[in-house]
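Dear colleagues,

As part of the handover before I leave the project, I'm documenting each prediction I ran so the next person doesn't have to rerun anything. This entry is a single chain, and its sequence is reproduced below.
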Amino acid sequence: MQYARTEIFLTRSPQTFSAAWFLGSVATYMVPNGIQMVMLSYLMAIELKQSPGSFGVTQMVGQLPLLLFLLMGGWVADRVDNRRWLMTLQGIGMVMPLLLAMLIWKGIASETSILLYAVVWGVVGAFSLPSRDGLLRRVAGTNVQKMVGLAIATQFASQMVGQTIAGQAARFGTVAVLLLQAAIAAAGIFVASRLPGGRAPQTGSNGSIVSELGAGLRMIVSTPVLRANYMISTGMGVFFGGFLLVMLPLAVRDLYHGGAQDIAMAYVMFAAGTLLSIAWLTRRGGVRQPGRALVITQVTASAALLPISLGVPLEGFYLCIFLWGLSAGVAMTMSRTIMQEQAPATHQSRIMAALTLMTTGGGPLGALIMGQAAAAFGVRGAVLLPIVAVLGCTLASLAMHSVIGLNSRSHA
C-alpha cells in the first residue's frame, strides 16, 4: 500500500535515514509478532482443540509478560542506548521459534512448550516496544503525528504479512513458518544497528526503582488530558484487545467452523482497515483535534462490532472486522499522538510504556474476561461486553477532561 507522499517528511537527511531504519525496525519486530499471534491460536485452538475458557487462559498467559514487564521496559529504555538494547532483544526473540520448530519436528511439542514460545516473545515485546517509542520523537523531529501514523501503518502492514505467512501453516508446515519467523527476527538485529544511538536526557532522580517504575503512571494520573486519554486507551486495550485475541479465533471456530487460514483472514481484515484509515490520515496531514477523533472512533468501532452478535454470515463477519479496523487505525494514532506530544522527554519511554500497558498489555486481562464471557454466554452474547465497556470508558474520560477540544501540536 502506498502512503501519501512520505518524501515530504522523509527528505534526504540524517533524520531521513533514521526514520527509514526506525520503520524497518518496527517491521522486523511486527512480522514475527503477526506470525506468533496466528501460530499460537492455530496450535492451541485448532490443533489441540482447547475449550473457550482454556483458550482464554492461554492467551492471557501468553500476553502476561507485557502486563508484568512493560513499566520495567520503559524504565530501562529511558536509561540505556536503545540501539544496542533493541539489537539484543531481537537476538533473544529469534531463539524460541527455533526451539519450538525443533520440538515440533521431533514430535515432542506440548502445550507447555507452545505457551513458553508465546511467553518469551511477550517478554521481548515488553522491553522492545518502549524502546522504539522512546526513539520515535527523536527520528520524527517536528512531524510527530505523521511519524506516529507511519509507525502504526508499518506495524499493522508488517503484522498482516506475518499473519498471512502463518495462515499457510497447514500448507507449508509449522516448522517452516517458525524458521522463517526466526530468520526475520534475526534480520532485525542488523536493522536495529542502524538506529540512532545515545540515551534520553535524565532528570537525575535518586528515587527507588519502584518509584521510578511508576513515574510514568503518576504523571499520567496527575495530568488531566493524559488521564482522560489513558481511560479511553484502557477500554480499547482491555476489551477490544481481548476481543482481538480471543473472540476472533473463537468466532471463526465456533460460528463459522474455520481453521488457520480463516483466523488469519480475520486478522488481515482488521489490519487492512487499520492501514486504510492511517493512509487517509497521512495523506491529509493528520487531524487538528485528535481528542475529538478519538472519542468518535470509539462509537464507530462499537457500532461495527454489534452486527456480529446478530449472526451475520462469514462475509459479513469479515466486513465488521474491516470496519472495526478503520476506526481502530484512527483511534490508535490519535491516542499515541496525544501521549507523544504531551509527554516530557525525561519520561517519554515510561509514559509510552504505561500507555502500551493498557493498549497492548491490557490484552491478558481482556483475554481472560472474554474467554470466560464466551464460555458463559456464547460467542455472540459475549460480543456485547466490549461494546458496553468501551463506551463506558469513553464517557468516563469525558468527565475527567474535555479532551474533544484538544488541538494537536503537529497537525499539518
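Residues 14-47 form the longest helix (34 residues). The chain has one domain: 15-197+209-405.

All the best with the project,
I.
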